[in-house]
Structure formats: structure tokens, C-alpha cells
Description:
Elements: E1 22-27, H1 30-36, E2 47-49, H2 61-72, E3 82-88, H3 94-105, E4 110-116, H4 120-124, H5 136-146, H6 161-175, E5 187-188, H7 190-198
Parallel strand pairs: 1-2, 1-3, 3-4
Antiparallel strand pairs: 4-5
Helix pairs in contact: 6-7
Amino acid sequence: xxxxxxxxxxxxxxxxxxxxxxxxxxxxxxxEKDYLRMDAFKGAPMAVKFPKDIHPDRRNPAAVLKRFQKxxxxxxxxxxxxxWIVVDVDTWGDVEFAELLSWAASDxxxxxxxxxxxxELFLVMHxxxxxxxxxxQKVDATLKRYWPRYDKRxxxxxxxxxxxxxxxxxxxxxxxxxxxAIPAPGMTDAHLLVERLIEGM
Length: 201
């Protein structure tokens, strides 16, 4: 067998995939996880990861934060990464959200994406602005008109990138009417996280 003459051929090739910054997301339900794993986000400049076992059952906002912080101690949270807590208002008020707001203000890498009344409102905004969707029942009824077979799961190809961008614009315009830290009924901040994922796409 001939001897190799090219020294370069003896060098080990390293992986060519560049590290992407990560959005570490604390999501309450499967719907949110399915949505953020859609094909529409495959070319996103930031990756999405979910710390394990942080929502074993319904908890108040302070408990959600505590479990997220505990889970993140075992994750590789790098300088360019971000931590996002995605929650619904449900029956919680300003007092219950105080710790979450304090956490978000403590580090520019910490973010909240609160939906009032729930995350499915953002799904509605892929079809319309969701005017009048101020209660869980009204959100469900409106979503069922456009998506009769919705069952808390989101297929990987359910929405295109253009539809996602339309929903972001609808949510942004509606949220502009409320300057409070927590969105008013019929509003959502889910678009803030989605905007981070699709920047430059």
C-alpha cells in the first residue's frame, strides 16, 4: 500500500456545524412545545430546548419559576442563550406574577411570554386578530371554527412561516394597546418569543 504523502490528509476533521444560541423554554403544555418544534422554525438562528420535568402538574407562577430555576442549574446555559417562561394568566393576578416579573428584570437574558387567557389565543391569531377572545371558552370556540379537529397538539407542518409572521404582527398590534407588564384579556406576549426565533428568516 502506498504511503500517504499529504500531511493534511492525516488531520482529523472536526464537526462543521456551528453552535446556535438557545432559547431555553419553560412551557406549560404540549401545545406550546409542539408549536415551537414546527418545521417553520427549522431555519431559525436560535434553537429551542425544554428543560425536563418542570411542569408535573398545575402550579402557580412562583412555583413555575422555582422549578425552572432548579432545572436550569443542570443545563448548559451559555452567554448568548436566553431563558423564557411561557405561561397563561388563568386565574392568577398581579401579586402571583410579581416574582416572575422580578426574575425577568434581573437579567436581560430572562424573558416572559404571558398569554391572557391562554396560549391558544396565539394560535387563533394565525387566522384572525382574536377580538373578543377574552376567556378560555371564547378562545376555544373561535379556534374550533378555523380548526375543528384541534386536540391540543400541533402538527409540524400546521403553519407556514408566512402564517407565523402574520400571527406575530396581529399579536404585536393588539398588544400595543396595553402598556401593562401583564397582557390584558384577549392579548398575548407569545409573539415576543416567536419573533426571537424568526429574526432574519
